[in-house]
């Protein structure tokens, strides 16, 4: 499998369709994306949408957020998804490696992410890339009904 990771710069209909094909594999409750939403993600100064392609087919994506807080520049990886047909072929590693490089270039001191314990393959991938578990709890306050 020949994977190329690109930072999305334009919300083309093909990109939106590819992301919408992946979205149910990421979240069963997420609403489909439209061009305006993808454009908003792409145009955000704190967000990079990384897309993995095999040829012109979207086979994975990752969102990198880089932001400044009082303790320094930090980075957070969110919404990592690899198409079922491409899993085990280095797509997740390629996306994560590009994200780490972008975070480093942006001056981030750390890169954080969360991953459900049931995602054992993802846990092994992140550990192999140098991520280590933090002694912390993640809390969520829902703003939706």
Query: How many DSSP E strands?
Result: 5
Structural class: alpha+beta
Strand order of the largest sheet: 1-2-3-4-5
Low-confidence stretches: none
Helix content: 25-40%
What's the SSE pattern?
EHHEEEHEH
Q: Radius of gyration in whole Å, from Cα?
A: 15 Å
The oligomeric status of these chains comes to single chain
Calculate the terminal CA-CA distance, rounded to whole Å: 42 Å
Shape: globular
Strand content: 25-35%
Q: How many separate helices?
A: 4
What is the residue-mean pLDDT, rounded to a whole number? 95
Main β-sheet description: 5 strands, mixed
Describe the structure.
By secondary structure, the chain is α+β, with helices and mostly antiparallel strands. Helix content is 32%, strand content 28%. The protein contains four helices and five strands, in the order βααβββαβα. The chain has a five-stranded mixed β-sheet, sandwiched between helices. A hairpin with a 2-residue loop joins strand 2 and strand 3. The longest helix is centred in the last third of the chain and has 15 residues. The chain is globular. The chain starts with a strand and ends in a 17-residue tail after the last helix. The relative contact order is 0.15. The mean pLDDT is 95.
Task: State the gist of this model.
The chain has helices at 13-26, 35-43, 91-105, 120-128; strands at 3-7, 47-54, 57-69, 72-82, 110-112.
Provide key terms for this protein.
single chain, 145 residues, alpha+beta, globular
SSE layout and pairing:
Layout: E1 3-7, H1 13-26, H2 35-43, E2 47-54, E3 57-69, E4 72-82, H3 91-105, E5 110-112, H4 120-128
């Amino acid at each position: 499998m020949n994977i190329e990771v690109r930072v999305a710069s334009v919300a083309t209909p093909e990109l939106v369709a590819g992301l919408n094909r992946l979205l149910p594999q990421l979240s069963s409750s997420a609403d489909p994306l439209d061009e305006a939403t993808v454009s908003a993600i792409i145009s955000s100064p704190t967000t990079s949408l990384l897309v993995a392609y095999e040829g012109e087919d979207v086979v994975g994506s990752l969102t990198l957020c880089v932001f400044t807080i009082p303790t320094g520049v930090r980075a957070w990886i969110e919404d990592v998804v690899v198409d079922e047909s491409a899993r085990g072929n280095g797509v997740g590693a390629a996306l994560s490696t590009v994200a780490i490089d972008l975070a480093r270039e942006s001056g981030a001191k750390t890169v954080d992410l969360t991953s459900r314990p049931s995602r054992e393959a993802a846990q092994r991938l992140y550990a192999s890339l140098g991520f280590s578990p933090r002694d912390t709890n993640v809390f969520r306050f829902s703003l939706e009904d």
